[in-house]
Amino acid sequence: MTDSDLKKSVIEYRKLFPVLQQDIAYLDNAATTQKPQSVLDAMKYYYENDNANPLRGVYSLSERATSSYENARIKTAEFINAAAPEEIIFVRNASEALNLLAYSWCEDNLSEGDEIVVSVMEHHSDFLPWKYMAEKKNAKLVKLEPDETGAVTDEVLDKCLSEKTKLLAITQLSNVLGRVNDIKHIAERVHSAGALISVDGAQSVPHMKVDVQELDVDFLSFSGHKMFGPMGIGVLYGKREHLEKMRPFMYGGEMIQTVHWDRVTYAELPHKFEAGTVNVGGAVGLSAAIDFINQVGWGVIEAQEEVLTKRAIAGMKNIDKIRIIGSQNEADHKGIVTFCVEDVHPHDVADILGRSGVCIRAGHHCAQPLMDHLGVKSTCRASFAFYNTEEEVDRFLAELSKIRGLMGYGF
Amino acid sequence: MDFKTFYNEVVTDHNLHPLHKHAIENPDFEMEGVNPSCGDEITLQLKVEDGVITDGGFVGDGCAISQASADIMIDMIIGKKTEEALHFADLFIRMIKSEATPEEIDELQEAGALADISHMPARVKCAVLGWHTLDEMIGKKNK
């Protein structure tokens, strides 16, 4: 595809996003993405035509609700190449997926003296549940710190893994550094140490092809709302052999086979983990979002995000007193650029940019241990989706270059 | 709202050249205030003799709004009785909640320059950090 074909195609796809028709440059896609009309329509269609409580009723309407839900599961399984739809557990978001996993898996698999390795790059959602369970079980939480370039090398892994390691938790794409970790290689190393690997895919699944069988990961968590789907639906993928042995996380309706006063048997996968009435509308929206991604294709998505990231980093390097966090090499940033403006607090930067219609994130990005590791209190972050344009990047750069002046600093 | 009504000269001046951003000797009151949303933090110190605030200072780290607001506050309350300082804190917090009258905002003098923050929910906590800390610190002790 030529540059001009890519541009044309992005302009066409961008028209499908109602929110993007206002005068803003939305560069906070790592926080949440906007939703195309097809996702909004699919959810509306479901509620207008097929809504009933799924998995319960025997009438046709409830059967349609059930198949809407289960078809979304099949589609999600295909999307990440899970071996079977039962390996897809629908939850609210990646945070809930990671809590489910930590609470349920650690309860029976973690004992005093065992070790869980968690990278310092993790979002609080992939840190606090493990920390809580490790403390509860008198197990040790081992910190994985990447090398000074941000890479998780064999040397780094050798330092963390031991015969006591039971599980390693790591993100595939850091929501701050924007760096992709080589999960396939890390999984091999973790498995040969006799442990399992849980991958936070909240940032990676929306922006690159993720194949759980090829990567050979034991668990993968992600959120629908960061991949053009609605808020309130997310996924825990787990290999069947692990999920089958895990106890339920939440107890209630629809997750049982039989319940008597003195004996209970639980439902088969995946329903064992989906207590209560489920979010069918959300699952339908996620399914439509997957259709949308498949329609656009990874070729366009990755090519455009690369164009935007390179342009942003090159432009930022040309502005005085801007410090890019993490690797200085643009190839190490996948759609995420975190930075500081010297002397200006990130919240002031984001506020001033926001007044000009440029939407970026400021703060600790729910990754305070990483902020400590990097020696910064908070930072600014611009993050791209393929529907962003080079004009939006230029608008961001133009506003960014004015900030120190507006705050009363000479340049 | 344009830039000038918000990051106006009063705010940028106090942020760039704070008058009271330093520790003071032998403070009678000291309290830490934290705003988790921005990660702003300040430690406020006051010296009080016979019910009158004779000196004040703060150390901290945070956005321009939080730091400037704390600096303006201290400048305003030095030389005042603690009751007057608490009255200003009450006025300021009400101003940020859009509950103060124009006369009351006038009474706040320089601190009135922060009135527009009442329209910016995301920054309210930054603006009131120093004032809340003051209120907690001497308000509670007086009760």
Features:
heterodimer; A: 411 residues; alpha/beta; Aspartate Aminotransferase, domain 1; Aspartate Aminotransferase, domain 2; 2 domains; seven-stranded mixed beta sheet; 41% helix; globular; B: alpha+beta; Sufe protein. Chain: A; 3 strands; 46% helix
Task: Describe what you observe in this structure.
The complex is a heterodimer of chains A (411) and B (143). Chain A is of the alpha/beta class and 411 residues long. Chain A has two domains: 3-29 and 297-406, Aspartate Aminotransferase, domain 1 (Alpha-Beta Complex), CATH 3.90.1150; 51-294, 3-Layer(aba) Sandwich (Aspartate Aminotransferase, domain 2), CATH 3.40.640.10. Chain A contains 15 helices and 15 strands. Chain A has helices spanning 3-14, 37-50, 60-79, 94-109, 128-136, 154-160, 183-192, 212-215, 240-245, 280-296, 298-317, 346-355, 368-374, 390-400, 403-406; strands at 25-26, 88-91, 115-119, 140-144, 165-171, 196-200, 219-223, 234-238, 256-259, 264-266, 322-324, 336-341, 358-359, 361-363, 379-383. Chain A has a seven-stranded mixed β-sheet with strand order 2-8-7-6-5-3-4, sandwiched between helices. A four-stranded antiparallel β-sheet of chain A has the order 11-12-15-14, covered by helices on one side. In chain A, α5 (128-136) links the parallel β3 and β4 (140-144). In chain A, α4 packs parallel to α5 (128-136) and α11 runs parallel beside α14. Chain A is globular and about 75 Å long. By secondary structure, chain B is an alpha+beta fold. Chain B has one domain (3-142): Sufe protein. Chain: A. Chain B contains six helices and three strands; from the N terminus they run ααβββαααα. In chain B, strands 1-2-3 form a three-stranded antiparallel β-sheet, with helices on one face. In chain B, a hairpin with a 2-residue loop joins β2 (40-49) and β3. Chain B is globular and about 40 Å long. In chain B, 41% of the residues are buried. The model of chain B has no long low-confidence stretch (mean pLDDT 90). The A-B interface holds A 344-348, 351-352, 355, 363-364, 377-378, 406-409 and B 1-3, 6-7, 9, 12-13, 15-16, 37-39, 61-65, 120, 122-123, 126.
